[in-house]
Structure prediction request, 550 residues.
Amino acid sequence: MAFIELKNVSYKYPYTKDFALHDLSCSFEKGKFYGIIGENGGGKTTLCNLIRGLIPHFYLGKLTGECLIEGKDIREWDTAELSSKIGYVFQNPFTQISGIKSTVFEEVAIGLENLGVPKDEMIERVIDVCNQLDIGHLIKNNPNELSGGQRQRVAFASIIAMDTDTLVIDEPTSQLDPEGTENVFKIINTLKHSNKTIILVEHKIDLIAEFCDEILVMENGTVAFSGPAHEVLTKRELLEHKASIPEVARFGLAMEDAGKPLERVPVTLDEAYKLIKERGR
Amino acid sequence: MDREFAYSYNDYVKYGNGYKDMNPISKLTISVCLGIASCIVHRWQFGVALCIIGTLAAIYTRIFKKYIKSLLVIAVPLLLLTSCIRQLQYAHLEGNQPIFKILGWQWYDQPFIASMDIAWYIIGFSSVLLVYFMNTEMKDLMLALENRGVTHVASYIMLSSIQSIIDMKKSADTILESQKARGIETDGNIIVRMKAFFPTLGPILLSAMSGTEEKAIAMDARAFSHEGGHTYLRVLRPIPWWEYILDAIAILVLVGSIVYQVMKTVGAL
Ligand SMILES: Nc1ncnc2c1ncn2[C@@H]1O[C@H](COP(=O)(O)OP(=O)(O)O)[C@@H](O)[C@H]1O
Ligand SMILES: [Mg+2]
Prediction:
């Protein structure tokens, strides 16, 4: 059975007319890396909120259909328990700083304090995570005085420190410059190899292509396409949709149209390079 | 990374100053007990003594400049006001001895002492409280309170309220800056400033309110409501015996002052 299973889920935020999620069905398996892409307002964040139980426990509104986490309905889960199982890095970095800690080091440790992790272990984990996220030079800084990008990394660090089996990450690079983005993806790469279940919302399609096992394309509150990354990212239908596909896939499809197809449509640069090299022989 | 800094969290919270390192609750107990005693005794001698203690503590903790500025703001108007009022009020009190004349205004001894009693008991109290709050981090006080059973929820509400006031001040400054950039007058007399300030209140309050909701969610993501054991990165020093003794002395002084006052009232003194 899938770890997370959604069946015909519809959801309306309170005081709104339109459905943010509409007849959505999908499932997530343990240990896999999922990428969620799609237009703004397509319901990606709302889906994250649901998986993490913020809907219906925090955002009221109208929820129908079934959403099962480990076979138990989301309505029956205790959010405190979910918080120690599913880590959630939010889209907006400015509200993710607690506002009660005076150094970044303390900020990153909050989740561990709440989980009751012993102090010496806490310190080691925070040091590790700060190194991983390249915020070691910020540990003495006041978290309330950081830039958007720095906050995003600190918030990310504080969730990673909690070491949950599942991570929901909503647009972690929206505030970052290319270098910061690359850094975050280095971390995501390490996470990928740690057997965690990861659900990542990200616009940067090339990065998605490189990391994800499975991809969901969201549109108007529902899943328009889903499946193995390679399959989804080379779909011709996607060209007509607002969701983008990697440049190399676009190139591969164009080659097909021109009657000179590669062995298959590539989705990453490396793959394209290999395919072209092989054909050259 | 500054590993030394990271591992300093292995130690108790330490500032390297005898007063600052005292437990926030012990310090508060001492300050409040002495302050209340000063109100009860209501004598300038006690107030002056307390003020001297406060000032010495301010010097010892290297905050004298900041401290004296705030204290003078309280003390100078208070001294002037109470002494003038008392001179006017009790100018014809029986047994008044003239002491000096200012610009033809005769001052007498009894009203002068009465005014000093009032002014100094307040100055003494203010002095110890100023030293306390200038030297004590709110988070340390909350931590000490949590150690005594206050929930971390209450502590969070307290600390984040303080932070949101700071944030509101920041966003007010930003808005005023941008108003200035657009050519709206923000400097000048009080009316000009009020005119510039009031329209900013709406957005500031709104952003503070919407921030609260998202903050609550963000805290939830950090397992804020997780039950079963909470640990702390920052741990306060266990309270040493001499702090208990200082506390006890302060409480004794308070009790003594109450006894003194009661005896005086019933006429035993
Ligand atoms: N807190 C909220 N309250 C009301 N409506 C919301 C809220 N958050 C999102 N919505 C609406 O739900 C829809 C889906 O939004 P969202 O999930 O944020 O999309 P995405 O993350 O894909 O950009 C949008 O129409 C948006 O306006
Ligand atoms: Mg979103």
Remarks:
- Residues A 44-45, 91, 170 surround magnesium ion (ligand 2) (CB under 6 Å).
